[in-house]
Amino acid sequence: MNILKTKRLSIRKPCDEDVDAIYEIQNTPYVLRYNGLKEMNKKQIHTMLMDKDEPVYMLEMVNSQKVIGAIFVERDSLRYGAKACSLSCYLEEAYAHQGYMKEAMTALIHHIFYDDEMDVISVRVLCENTASMHLVEALGFQKEGVIRRCLKGYQGIVYDDMIYSILKEEYVSG
């Protein structure tokens, strides 16, 4: 995939110039709180963005070319032998709750099912992150269950983790 376009976003692979923007977004308390991440330096961010085995996609505003977030595609570690991947994502706080992530995820999910030929996509959401739960449910993901006390995250808080998935045959492109 080179670039996916939506009405407001370009969804593209990262480049060296994205490190500063992602460094600033990812290391904020807003993003760290619900993503199970630790603060990273710019070298660590660069390594993460350029990982060829687990692609990262930049969410860039079409009108300004400003990077406002990222979506990460990883191997689904809970499934074995299935054509499955897991998504995680975050946005800069100023762009949250405006439909940007739904717009981006809709385009990327379609790409993953029909171009990458995956059979199932999963998403893990920390139980306190109600906005992300609503997002994935609106995208058609089904709740599979909860892994209790799954992740020690930001400020040492231990979170329960909700598991969601959507099967290719359940997906209805929008």
Automatic annotation (TrEMBL):
Question: Family per UniProt?
Answer: Belongs to the acetyltransferase family. RimJ subfamily.
The organism's superkingdom is given as: Bacteria
Its name, as the record gives it, is GNAT family N-acetyltransferase
An example Pfam family from this entry, by short name, is Acetyltransf_3
Q: Which UniProt keywords apply?
A: Acyltransferase, Transferase
N-acetyltransferase domain: which residues? 9-164
Q: Which InterPro entries match?
A: Acyl_CoA_acyltransferase, GNAT_dom, N-acetyltransferase
> Which species is the source of this protein?
Amedibacillus hominis
